Each structure stands twice: as structure tokens, then as C-alpha cells.
Amino acid sequence: MYIPKHFAEPDKTALYDIVRAYPLATLVTQTADGVDANHVPLHLTVQNGTAITLSGHVARANPLWKTYNGSKEVLAIFHGPNAYITPSWYPEKARSGMVVPTWNYVVVHVHGNLKVIDDASWLRRHLALLTAQQEASFKKPWQVEDAPSNFIEKMIQAVVGIEINITSLTGKWKSSQNQPVENQLGAVQGLQESDATVNHQMASIMTAVNRLG
């Protein structure tokens, strides 16, 4: 991933937060037939402040777990908030017109080595962790134990576990860091006036990254 220095996010905690908040990853693998991509929710495990693994599962019918090249690294891409930035929000547009549109976004790339885990006990623990993370914001969180045990066993038989041992983790926060403050403020105001929730999220990110608060 191309990351200009001013767009790089070195704070590992910020990267971990995006992975947890937006766990549906684009998982890119290499197979004998070429590059493949699947969309898989992944659970991040951190030990002593360092990301260790990503764990997930795929349908047993999904060829990913049989066709990936085990000697090649895989890439998991986590997409955070993103928003179109119109030059109409920049004060510079009124002065010189020398502005163009852009797209602001947050993304985390995780490289690692993938292994397949076809084990019912491991899958049950994984599903409990993944579910607990996603259900945490609900008033009455659903748990795996809420479903009949024989039903869950049947569901577990229909999936295969995957685990990625993380070798590198990088983040890109493209948040108008290359614009003068007045243009940053104009873009934040424009995003805040939008009805789209994701635009409000990007406005908050821009405010924090560029220290506009």
C-alpha cells in the first residue's frame, strides 16, 4: 500500500481499534488459479500490546481453505470510514479555484500466514469470542448458548476455521493532512452538515488527526 508519510498512522492502538470496529475484512489470497478475495469477519487477538492473530471461519463449501497457497502471505484489508471531499468546501476555491476533489478514508492492512483449523472445539471458542465482540453493544447480547446445542453443532460442521499469524500491520489515515487548516475546517463543516453518518465519522477523524478541536 502506498502511504505518504503524512498519511501514515503509527499508533498501533488506533489500528487495533479499526480492526475491532470494522471486522469485516477483505481477505486476499493467492491460489493456483490466481488472486482470490473473500469477505470474512475476523477477530483480533492482542497479547502484551502486540497483535498476534486474526481468527475467522468460512463455509465448508468455500474453496478458500483448500485452494490458498500456504507458502504465500495473505492480506486482510479492514476498511474504516470514508467520504468524498468536494472542493466546494474549501475557502481556496473562492480565491483561486486551484483545488480538486479527493476521497478521505481510513484503512488497515494486515499481512500474515494463514492456516486452516478444522476443529469443532476451536470453532466453538472462536464463535463465542467473535459473537461476544459484536453483541457487546446490545442491551440483551445474544450468546452461542442461546441456540439449541444440536443446532449449533450442525452449524459448526458447516464451517472451517482459519487463523492468520500476523507478520505486519500498517494503517493509512487519509484525512486532509496535506491541506491548509482553513480547507480542513471547511471540509469538516461540510461533512458535519451532511445527513450521512459515515460523513460525520470522517469529520470526527479529521478533527482528531489534524487537531482541529
From TrEMBL:
One Pfam family named in its UniProt record: FMN_bind_2
Xref: SUPFAM superfamilies: FMN-binding split barrel
InterPro entries: Split_barrel_FMN-bd, TR_PAI2-type
Protein name in the entry: Negative transcriptional regulator, PaiB family
Organism: Methylophilus rhizosphaerae
